[in-house]
Description:
The complex is a heterodimer. Helix content of chain A is 0%, strand content 49%. By secondary structure, chain A is mostly beta strands. In chain A, strands 2, 5, 6, 10, 11 and 12 form a six-stranded mixed beta sheet that branches. In chain A, strands 3-9-8-7 form a four-stranded antiparallel beta sheet, with no helix packed on it. Chain B is mainly β. Helix content of chain B is 0%, strand content 49%. Chain B starts with a strand and ends with a strand.
Amino acid sequence: GDSVTQMEGPVTLSEEAFLTINCTYTATGYPSLxxxxxxxxxxxxxxLKATKADDKGSNKGFEATYRKETTSxxxxxxxxxxxxxxxxxxxxSDRDSGYSTLTFGKGTMLLVSP
Amino acid sequence: xxxxxxxxxxxxxxxxQSVAFWCNPISGHxxxxxxxxxxxxxxxxxxxFQNNGVVDDSQLPKDRFSAERLKGVDSTLKxxxxxxxxxxxxxxxxxxxxxxxxxxxxxxxxxxx
Lengths: 114, 113
């Protein structure tokens, strides 16, 4: 079955540091890939997505590139802010579900200090 | 546009009691999902509706969980009887089309004691 593996957290960084959160996946067929963010006390929000190999999703300074050869979709940001502190989830949807349901990783907590 | 509304925000019950959660999706979104998020884990799909029909309930523990979506709009998720391991955040999401992603509600945090 499908699965998503993320690096364990928490990831603790100082403001303006470079961020990488690793994500790898296993899927049948050709999945679409997503990053969702969950701020404390809130629901999940779509951060960015990519639907085919070599696509780069980007939003709010975050970016991730769909790497089919390494089955990866690592999240990066060049300079994090305190307001980026949240839990980040990598997810995929695949053809078997008509691309309509999501399989999530366990999430990675990011803590940014001033 | 208004987001996905869920209630209650928090619920504490004793094991073997019953509980119900409510979700109002974004207007016009035909697809509605219920996910269970246990602490420290990613959300897991419980059930997917398309309008008022069930598309996928393969991971719903049907001996104790039930869900309905009357008239293809609001939905309720019920647990009866609850177990300790049901303690989790229950997330509702809706979608106009999978290509555009989901919109999640803020969730209901259930604690079973």
